[in-house]
Amino acid sequence: CERQDGRPFRQRLLVVANRLPVSAVRRGEDSWSLEISAGGLVTALLGVKEFEARWIGWAGVNVPDEIGQKALTKALAEKRCIPVFLDEEIVHQYYNGYCNNILWPLFHYLGLPQEDRLATTRSFQSQFAAYKKANQMFADVVNMHYEEGDVVWCHDYHLMYLPECLKKHNTNMKVGWFLHTPFPSSEIHRTLPSRSELLRSVLAADLVGFHTYDYARHFVSACTRILGFEGTPEGVEDQGRLTRVAAFPIGIDSERFIRALELPQVQEHIKDLKERFSGRKVMLGVDRLDMIKGIPQKILAFEKFLEENPYWRDKVVLLQIAVPTRTDVPEYQKLTSQVHEIVGRINGRFGSLTAVPIHHLDRSLDFHALCALYAVTDVALVTSLRDGMNLVSYEFVACQDAKKGVLILSEFAGAAQSLGAGAILVNPWNITEVAASISQALNMSAEEREKRHQHNFHHVTSHTAQEWAETFVSELNDTVVEAKLRTSK
Ligand code: ADP
Ligand code: G6P
To answer: What is the pTM assigned to this prediction?
Structure first.
């Protein structure tokens, strides 16, 4: 396709996600600086280049004044981002409350903490009302910027009510929705008081996507059991109206990582790290400091390994880089102190005056430092209790073509389905098994490491973020747009 000016036509894609790829930090009344946001959704979508994409989302900051809003809107426009301004109360009820204290733990099979259970039950209605209100605010911004022919791609559990808001306003809009977390068994989803409303709204989209076939299957069976709709090989059908449901496993922009390793500044980092940890094997964890990542379990497994393998005590180091996340949610605050306590105890137990077995950093690393760290690692530990996909495991593999290190990977991460044959798969709840897998990884022959790495490297470099987005959007383009609003049953 060509435009009148002869340039190739690139379809306009409106990407709507709660979090913009950049988060804003206020420097003055009308000045802002923008920093890349952490998280798999952002990483994957930054790898998508073939579309004329606009991002619509929250910049992660409260901006009550008009001067600040105008200046931020302008700064974001340069990055093709369009802000949705959420006030403090909405953020508290919608983002901290309904999204991250209810949906997130539920979708990852983690029950609510005992003491929060009653309080959450009581505040449920007001949080759900805020969730719907916030989703409508996202819809209003989409409607303001939508042009005929655009494709609207909604992302994640924050925006399950968005497809319905959009279709109510314009039934001709092409709307896709993709979930970046697991979709749990229908028995789990069934416990959610707003279970039906959320499912109906998602079904208003033309295409619904998940990372794995299992998540798609759970969603279809929730629609069958809870709404009484029909599950078909194509998706979910109700009175002749079909919503297509399918699996679209995400990937990363692997070339970006591979190319970065050649840069002088990354080589410099690699040299420093090799010197600093010379004579020791490097084990690495890179996670948002989130309870789904199984960080305490991972560290306890490492302690067990040290306990059982005195030989390795001064020959191995675990670097755990944990970027703080959702710090206003009490559960996350508790997790931070829990992790600090465990790390302190183990370092006290196995450390010496000159070295400690665990280096724990509560912060984000810049891209070059992260690539260098991946490249010098001997064993990566990805022990999520549940994880939609987990892109850290992909990034590690992309940076390991020289070293051919070992990936220890949770069987409960979506990535286990794609990298399982090359990784050592573990049940992260079983610290004896994880400790044994550390031993297996450190003692693995070069030949076996090479074989396992080749398998994973091939997958990571041939299933990219770009390809993921193209497949989803092309399938969305192929769907027939129709009014799929299902208001009652
Ligand atoms: P999630 O989306 O749950 O955070 P993923 O593993 O899919 O999990 O994606 C995490 C993304 O965030 C990766 O791209 C990773 O590089 C980045 N990230 C996570 N922790 C850090 C950190 N401490 N420093 C820099 N980047 C990080
Ligand atoms: C996960 C979610 C994303 C989210 C990211 C970071 O990857 O699927 O939607 O953006 O975590 O979390 P945050 O709450 O900081 O946006």
So the answer is: 0.95
